[in-house]
Write a structure and sequence with these properties.
The chain is mostly helical. The protein has 8 helices and no strands. The radius of gyration is 19 Å and the shape is elongated.
Length: 205
Amino acid sequence: MDNHDKKRALIIETATKRFAHFGIAKTTMTEIAKDLSLSKALLYYYFPDKISLYAAVLEHIAKKMFSKIKQGLQDMDNSEEAVLHLIDMRLAFTMKYYNLFDQGLNSLNEMPDELARVIQLVSDLEIKILADIFKKANERGEILTEDPTQAAEIFLNAMIGMRFCVLKDKKVMFIPTKEEFDEISKMQKKLAIIFLNGLRFQKQH
């Protein structure tokens, strides 16, 4: 890692701590620059605005989460255990970094390109992990699915849909309360069991 990458990584790490503690709306670029003993001009050289830095922080957290999920999956040879592990880890990271999912984002008229890119990246990584779980379960003869990636996409879309069923305030764009996140996670676990039982039933017939 060269000096440019090291400096960028340090900025992201510092911004992560501040965003996680205060949220994006209550954090300024001036405060982040001060934490790092950098000039604002140098900070803006790496990240032209707060949204681009916020997107980089979310990407950093997402990659850390998926790395942790993959690590936990290494010794698992049961699809139900694996999917429930993924859901548990998603909830754990959401609770740990809850302030990152700032309600101030709901005031945005449209999704900034940087955030849309990160959301798509998260979706792609999650589909890849789920497809791998289904593929291995298929190879073990545990379930039957001709297209693990398609099954992963269907399951992920169903999990995402549950978020909107649970939200108390339907005007909120996509950020449930902590209690709602917990409720969503419980529902997603029930969905996982039903979904996998369906793939097992398909194998038997």
